């Protein structure tokens, strides 16, 4: 009777341990698989889209009407470094060409202004310059109603605000991804330790039962036990 109960108990224990071990392994695999994309980003094997700052179409669709001319003109008078990003140089040239006789700013004025804005974005100056260049090329190729100089300056200010917002959003996503990565790694590690513990318990129970069965078999066979000796 006791033997039958013990067999039933061990059978149930095997099922429970098998299910628990499977769940632990699945959690471990899920945690490791979920952390792979972040590991690839850290290793530089995947690219993260740089902030763009928006397009001319988005600016026109928003139809922002704000007085940014004074701020933009003030920016043009600040002292700037002599270096100018080639992308910014091309953007300034394209904008001056687009304005033609409607504008009073020179390419040098725009270069100094745009480079000053780029210098305020450490580590992202090149991306900002490329974004401004893309916007200027789009403006030069546009077929709609020509923008005034004031609206072009407003467009550049809007682009910078969007660029900074995109940059902040990307940094927030990276921070969230890093936090999520460590949570997943911790969960995977805990699940793996749980799996090892479950296997250890199962082996311990198996070894204990095997030793007990050997002892019982010896008693039935009439062999002296260590206690009797």
Question: Can you walk through the features of this model?
Answer:
The protein has 229 residues and is mainly alpha-helical. It folds into 2 domains: 2-46 and 179-221; 56-170, no CATH class. Helices cover 76% and strands 0% of the residues. Helix 4 packs across helix 5 and helix 4 (86-99) packs parallel to helix 6. It starts with a helix and ends in an 8-residue tail after the last helix. The model is unreliable at 65-81 (pLDDT under 50).
Name the poorly predicted regions: 65-81
* Intertermini distance: 29 Å
Number of helices: 7
Q: Main β-sheet: number of strands, strand sense, barrel status? A: none
Domain module count: 2
Share of residues in helices: over 70%
Radius of gyration, rounded?
A: 35 Å
Please provide the ordered H/E string of secondary-structure elements. Answer: HHHHHHH
**Percent of residues in beta strands?**
under 5%
Counting helices, strands and paired strands, the structural category is mainly alpha
Task: Find the count of extended strands (DSSP E, 2+ residues).
Answer: 0
**What overall geometry do the principal axes of the alpha carbons give?**
rod-shaped
Mean pLDDT: 75
């Amino acid at each position: 009777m006791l033997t039958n109960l013990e067999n039933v108990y061990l059978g149930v224990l095997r099922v429970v341990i098998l299910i628990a071990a499977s769940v632990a392994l699945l959690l471990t695999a899920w945690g490791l698989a979920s952390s792979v994309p972040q590991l690839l980003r850290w290793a530089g094997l995947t690219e993260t889209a740089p902030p763009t700052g928006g397009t001319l179409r988005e600016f026109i669709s928003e139809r922002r009407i704000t007085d940014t001319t004074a701020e933009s003109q003030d920016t043009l008078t600040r002292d700037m470094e002599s270096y100018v990003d080639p992308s910014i140089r091309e953007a300034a040239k394209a904008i001056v060409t687009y304005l033609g006789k409607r504008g009073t700013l020179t390419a040098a004025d725009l270069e100094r202004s745009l480079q000053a804005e780029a210098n305020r974005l450490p580590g992202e100056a090149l991306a900002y310059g490329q974004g401004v260049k893309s916007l200027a090329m789009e403006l030069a190729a546009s077929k709609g109603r020509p923008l005034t100089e004031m609206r072009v300056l407003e467009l550049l200010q809007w682009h910078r605000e969007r660029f900074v917002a995109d940059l902040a959003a990307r940094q927030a996503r990276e921070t969230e991804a890093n936090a999520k990565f460590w949570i997943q790694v911790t969960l995977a590690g805990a699940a793996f330790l749980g799996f090892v513990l479950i296997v250890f318990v199962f082996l311990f129970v198996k070894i204990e039962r095997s030793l007990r069965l050997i002892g019982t078999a010896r008693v039935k066979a009439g062999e002296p036990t260590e206690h009797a000796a």
